[in-house]
Every structure is written in C-alpha cells, then in structure tokens.
C-alpha cells in the first residue's frame, strides 16, 4: 500500500450525517441512541448517510492485499473531489487495452453508481457489461470478478431480490469470462482509532446528543473544584466540536497542535460518552461493509501462487473479514449456484469452526459444460496466452519441417510441465494433451504460400470435485 499512497494518497475523508430513521421505510437503522430528556430506556433510531468520501477503491485495495494480493495495475479515473460516474470508469477500462499483463479486472467503485429510481443498479450493470465485453471480446486474456449491486441486502429485503435483479439485467454475453460473489463482507479494514468526530457532519446534533449523554446541563454542574474542573473541560470540549480548528497563534500554532487537540478531544469523548462510542462504532461498521470482488482477486492470486491457476479458488478462508453481511443457508446457496438462466453466483458463507469461506467456483455461464468453472476458464486463458507469446519467437522463421518439430517440442515440453503439476487431467501426457503442427496435419500448401503456420492443441483440463457423494448401507453382522 505504501506505493499506492505515494502516488494516489491515503483514504478518503468520509463524512456522515445522522438522519432520523423512518420505521415504515423497512431499512434497518444504523444507530439506536438515547433520546435527550427522554425516558431511561427510550431510544431513537438513526441512519448514517454518507455525505462525502464515498469511495471504495482504497479500502478494497487493502482487502485485496490482506487476502494474498500482489502486484496490480491501478487505473486512476479521478480524485476524491470527483463524483463517481460511469464514463470515467469506462475510459479507465479502455486504457487497459494497451496493457498485456493484467489477468483480472475489478471495479469496486461501480457499486456506488446511481441508476434510475426504477432501476438503481442500471448504471452499475452497464459498467459490468462493458467489463465483460472487455474481457471476453476485446482482450480475451483476462477474467472479470463482479460484485452484486446492493449485495449487502438479504434476498428477502423489501426493496427486492438483488440476485434476481442482477441476473435479469446482466445479459448473456461473455458470461464465461466472469464470476460474481454474494453477499458483501463485514471487514476489519477500517479501525475505530482512525475515526473521530470529524467524520460527523451535523455537529449541532452531535453536540445535543453528547451534552445529554454527558449530563452537561449547567444546573447539574458540581460545586466542588475538582469535579467542576472535569465538568468544565467536557463542556468546553463539546462546545468546540463545531470549531473550525484554525491556527490562532496561541494554543494552536501549528498543524501538529491542531491534530493533537483534535485527538485529545476524541479520546476524552470516547472515554466518557457511550453515545459517542456508539456513533464511531457505527461509522466504522459502515465503512467496513465492502463488496467481495477485491478480496476474491486476492484469493485468486494467493491460490495461483500456492497451487496454480488450475486450482479452484474456493473452500478458502477470507482474511480481515468478520462475517458476510447476509447469512446463507444450504438451500439458498443451491439457488445461487444452479439456476435455469445459468448465471451462477458464488456464495461467501460462514461455517462454525472454519470461519468465512468462499463456497463456490463457478463462472456466470453455469449452464456451459465447457466453461462452468472459474479455474477451467482461467487455465485455458493461461495456456493460450503462454503459447501465443512463446510462438512469437518463431515469427519469420522458415515455415519448414525443422521449425515445426521445434515448435511442437516447445509446446509439448510446456504442456508436460503443466501436466506434472496437476493442471491437466490424464494418466500420461498422451492422455492429457495432443499437439499437431505441420503440412497435412494443420496446414495446406496454400497456407504455407500465404505465410501461415497453424498449430492445433487439444488439452484435457482438470475440473473441481464440486459435489462429493457418500453412500452408506447397513450390512449384516459377520461375527
């Protein structure tokens, strides 16, 4: 992350408004805070509405590295002052056309795009369709990892089934070049120590809530000097919440003085005010709610390095994750995994004793017997790219039998190495792959005259054991 920070800076300055929740809305409140002057157990519900700093890339990148991510390309399409819009994201996607190295594409900020009232996910899905086209038609050498718009919601949410909306809107093109994951994740990326009252916009409401919580009514002020000093410090601290924190040449002479004063006020409020602690915890919870694609990109990288691209990136635990935002049952996962449309969604599930696991390895083209599995699609991409780049060394070589033997030997040696490492299925190399090149096999005399060298390779790719069936029978006693 240090290199990213050197080029692009640190996290966004997130600001939240406390908005009184409407019970009839059906959306769960973020905070329950005691009512100032109300009954002892009376609580008021609030939503945390993010007013600024709503960007996902920085935290998603941290999640990527926490789960095994390595070197990656960052395509900057704007700064923290810019609104997240589809056109800059699409322009960033076009910039990747000139790059050969990327093998996966993740666009976390697409989840913040706003559509129409009738279809809030429309703009995000349009960007995802462009990503699919980029991977499957334009480049054909990379794989898209997609998030579900509003994927932190349960499928039974009053606003509708987010999975059904995603499947209906995505279309049918290039589905075998992508995988999608559900639900979003509650993570530990953002620490509460990195947050303070500066992350709350409405300082007036905050002062009212904290004054009531700390019992700062002047009529309740203690008369003894020592308690009175603490009371006055709390009053002064709460009153300074809406301060502009400008240098005054006296108490605040430098930026370090300002930071020190803000930290001192934050620590005082966190120590004495349960309401303040509740608000900070709520903000941290909101910022830590992240889409899973970045974590999965890290998992792909980790599995590739440890086992190879032919190993399915599933049954792997996620780091820096507390739990999925939605608990998924076995029956619910079956509907995610297998559907008549073929658009399989991979589940992220929490298991007792195992933690949070990735529990699915299918592409969005679940009805295809050839391209159903992520590792099969990515292995084929790897083989095609490796052999294509290796063949570039033989461009302009004589199109004769000697060259054909050399090319065939190169491809055979490469595929034998993949077979030995478990990437190809078969008891022997002959069962795992076949390489054909030469006149009468893959070329005609006309091909040679036109300067074409054609090579055909057949491979048997290994597939994951997705379902393991165990049969038990009761036998008669033998002794």
Describe the structure.
It holds the Pfam family Phage_sheath_1C. This is Phage tail protein. The chain has 15 helices and 14 strands. The protein is of the alpha+beta class and 479 residues long. The chain folds into three domains: 1-51 and 190-287, no CATH class; 55-184 and 291-374, no CATH class; 396-459, no CATH class. Strand 2 (31-34) and strand 3 (43-52) form a beta hairpin. Helix 3 packs parallel to helix 4 (122-139) and helix 12 packs antiparallel against helix 13. It starts with a helix and ends in a 20-residue tail after the last strand.
What does this entry show, briefly?
InterPro entries: Tail_sheath_C, Tail_sheath_structural. Belongs to the myoviridae tail sheath protein family. This protein has helices at residues 2-8, 57-66, 86-95, 122-139, 162-170, 203-213, 225-239, 255-272, 274-287, 293-306, 330-337, 374-391, 401-420, 429-432, 445-449, and strands spanning 15-20, 31-34, 43-52, 104-105, 143-147, 178-182, 185-187, 289-290, 316-317, 321-324, 346-351, 355-359, 433-437, 455-459.
């Amino acid at each position: 992350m240090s290199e990213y920070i050197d080029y692009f800076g640190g996290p966004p300055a997130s600001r939240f408004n406390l908005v009184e929740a409407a019970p009839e809305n059906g959306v769960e409140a973020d905070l329950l805070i005691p009512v100032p002057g109300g009954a002892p157990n009376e609580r008021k519900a609030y939503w945390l509405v993010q007013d600024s700093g709503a960007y996902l890339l920085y935290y998603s990148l941290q999640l990527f590295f926490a789960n095994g991510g390595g070197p990656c390309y960052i395509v900057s399409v704007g700064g923290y002052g810019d609104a997240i819009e589809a056109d800059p994201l699409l322009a960033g996607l076009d910039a990747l056309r000139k790059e050969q190295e990327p093998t996966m594409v993740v666009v976390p900020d697409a989840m913040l795009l706003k559509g129409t009232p009738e279809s809030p996910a429309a703009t995000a899905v349009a960007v995802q369709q462009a990503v699919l086209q980029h991977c499957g038609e334009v480049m054909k050498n990379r794989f898209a990892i997609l998030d579900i718009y509003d994927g932190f919601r349960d499928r039974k949410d009053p606003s509708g089934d987010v999975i059904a909306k995603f499947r209906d809107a995505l279309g049918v093109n290039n589905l075998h070049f992508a995988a999608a994951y559900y639900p979003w994740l509650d993570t530990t990326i953002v620490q509460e120590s990195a947050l303070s009252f500066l992350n709350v916009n409405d300082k007036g409401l905050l002062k009212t809530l904290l004054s009531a919580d700390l019992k700062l009514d002047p009529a309740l002020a203690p008369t003894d000097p020592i308690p009175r000093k603490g009371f006055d410090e709390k009053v002064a601290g709460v009153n300074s919440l809406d301060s502009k924190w400008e240098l005054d040449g006296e108490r605040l002479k430098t930026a370090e003085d300002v930071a020190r004063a803000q930290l001192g006020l934050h620590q005082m409020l966190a120590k004495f005010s349960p309401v303040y602690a509740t608000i900070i915890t709520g903000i941290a919870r909101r910022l830590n709610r992240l889409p899973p694609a970045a974590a999965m990109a890290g998992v792909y990288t980790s599995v590739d390095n440890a086992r190879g691209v032919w190993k399915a990136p599933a049954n792997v635990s996620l780091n820096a994750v507390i739990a999925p935002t939605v608990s998924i049952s076995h029956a619910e996962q079956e509907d995610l995994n297998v559907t008549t449309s073929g658009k399989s969604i991979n589940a992220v599930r929490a298991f007792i004793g195992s933690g949070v696991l990735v529990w699915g390895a299918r592409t969005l083209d679940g009805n295809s017997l050839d391209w159903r599995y992520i590792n099969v699609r990515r292995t084929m991409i790897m083989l095609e790219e490796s052999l294509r780049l290796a063949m570039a060394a033989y461009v302009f070589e004589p199109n004769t039998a000697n060259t054909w033997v050399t090319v065939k030997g190169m491809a055979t040696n490469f595929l034998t190495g993949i077979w030995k490492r478990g990437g190809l299925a078969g008891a022997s190399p002959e069962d795992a792959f076949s390489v054909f090149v030469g006149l009468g096999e893959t070329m005609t005399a006309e091909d040679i005259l036109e300067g074409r060298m054609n090579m055909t390779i057949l491979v048997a790719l290994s597939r994951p054991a997705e379902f393991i069936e165990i049969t038990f029978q009761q036998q008669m006693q033998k002794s």
